[in-house]
Amino acid sequence: MQVQKLEGYIQDYTKFLQRTRHYDGIYIxxxxxxFQQNWDVEAPDFGKMYEKSLQNSTTKRLWxxxxxxxxxxxxxxxxxxxxxxxxxxxxxxxxxKDIENRIARFKFCCDELLREYKERHPISVENNHYHEDNxxxxxxxxxxxxxxxxxxxxxxFRQTLHLMGTRNLPGPHDLLRFIKxxxxxxxxxxxxxxxxxxxxxxxxxxxRYLSQSMLVVQDFYRFVxxxxx
Length: 229
Fold this sequence. Notes:
- The chain is mainly alpha-helical.
- The model has no long low-confidence stretch (mean pLDDT 92).
- The chain has helices at residues 3-19, 26-38, 46-53, 70-80, 82-92, 99-120, 135-144, 154-163, 175-189, 193-202, 215-227.
- It is globular.
């Protein structure tokens, strides 16, 4: 990754925030706010808490699209084995444990719950828990620990690294490198006061969870991948 190119793209991103009238990333910050306000892994009714934690007033695109419904499947799993699902999230969000092992274990548990779901609903056409591609897993991580993680969108991330002159591009399962590079990018973004001033202008006051939020990294790398090259 060439620092000069990274700094140039940060300037482009800052200018974009300055000139755009309709910033379309507000929904992500709103969903972060909902999650931070409602998430409690020890809540008596885990399914109800999970449902309240993933909310948005304008769109469901983070957890529901055509042929993609991870939130609904997790609610199904919670109705099957609430305590088991609770323990899955305890483990995934435990920062004292190795992140790769946490993610692998979470996926394994989802596989097992899906197998059980299919046994209980043999005529159901549902055959996916939608957590294998890491999007939802990093959504949970980023919403619970926004100072540590950002969203995972591998095609955009890889394209951004390519545009910044990275020779040895990562594969889709190189999660440690994704986390490491995301933190590096954030350190450069955090130096740009003008960038955060412009981002503040687009967000309502209650959504300005910006001082230590890595979510800006995914907004940046999606901007670079979609607008440069």
